[in-house]
Amino acid sequence: MALSSSGTGTAGATPDDASAAPDATGARRAPGRGLFPLLLVGNSAMYSLYIGVAGVLLALQVEDVDPANKVSNFGLIAGVSAVFATIFNPVAGALSDRSGRRNPWILGGGIAAVPAMFLLGAADTILLITIAWCLGQAVMNVYQAAITSVVPDRVPMSARGKASAAVGLGLPFGSTVGALIGAAFSQDYRTGYLVFGAIVAGAAVLFTACSREERLPARAPLPVKEQLAAFTGALRDHDFRWAFVGRALLVLGYFAVSGYQLYILQDHTVLPDGMKPEAAVAVLMPLTSVAMVVSTVLGGYLSDRLDRRKLFVGASALLSAVALVIPAVSDSWSAMLAFAAVNGLAFGSYMAVDTALVTMVLPKAEDAARDMGVLNIANAGPQIVAPFIASVIVSLSGGYTALFVVAAVLAVAGALAVKPIRSVR
């Protein structure tokens, strides 16, 4: 999403040189027109599984197995599985860097989602559900690490805003699909799991069949000690570190609330007569998604046009804090509707512009997938602690009001974290 030229690329290479695929003469060229729609489809499929499974079907399955301990059990499963996400994302990114290819990893992770979802649907104890969802997180993060690296690999800096908007739109579109499918299969979550696995596998086949990939130079394997040092090396870069911290704080607050959305609707919100919590999710997600689409497109376009990233990222994080205060002061259905709309505006703009900001502060272009994988720890890492933090807050406070307040404070901290970034305006 960048017009600024600092913060990425290698010595002697311009940002555009570091970001677009080479042609036969060695010069860099822009991606084909079909790449952006494919990024949209690929990311929409991924988010549909994340939202539909983790946000609806998994919560229902956990409640079905042990309704009395659903909050603590769900927190345990979400936290343990997020460990696998944290590990597999940067590792898969580094392996795809070494191979010089992204498409095989996208295809492999996508197809593997089908058997992983089958095993999850067959699980009938908390232990088996945990193991199966850990496997699901592992294969999905192989897919995610590779598809996330497509933007810094193949898109020139001048088109990062449009590319990041295509990626960002995957969240509202995928969330809507995930919520609707989750609600449709709320009484048959086993079939629902298979539907989500098939969606991801189909998107992976479509992306790899239709996207042209130029093989990047293969990377020589490093000793394990050097690999570990390389993973942490990106965080020694000043701007990358602050981008990492800001993302981690906002995501921590976001998932502390969103992970428990179904239970919030069951136990906190006063729903209209006759409305079930699963149906409420199917109403809230499309509302959030419409708001996300609007703010993602506007955020990506305006941040490119004005060449301002930090302003949009900080303002979006603050707006997210405002959204989280709404259900904290009211347990009404109208308050949840307002929260869904305002939070969608905030999170859509944040993810679109922050993704572009991150691609501009990558320490080394040749390590793009690995470093994007390190950054994705800021996505997956907070999910490890968010369920535990949320369950403790809910248990100690006896409700969800305190959870909304804590999440709002984290969003404000995330907004302040982008201020020290120096190489991007």
TrEMBL record:
Entry keyword annotation includes Transmembrane: yes
Subcellular location: Cell membrane
Membrane topology reported for the UniProt record: Multi-pass membrane protein
Main location: membrane
Highest taxon listed in the record's lineage: Bacteria
Residues annotated as transmembrane: 38-62, 74-92, 104-120, 163-185, 191-210, 244-264, 279-299, 311-329, 335-362, 374-394, 400-418
Keyword DNA repair carried by entry: no
Annotated keywords: Membrane, Transmembrane, Transmembrane helix
InterPro entries: MFS, MFS_dom, MFS_trans_sf, Tet-R_TetA/multi-R_MdtG-like
Domain spans labelled Major facilitator superfamily (MFS) profile: 36-425
UniProt-annotated stretches for the region Disordered: 1-27
Pfam family, one: MFS_1
Protein name, entry field: MFS transporter
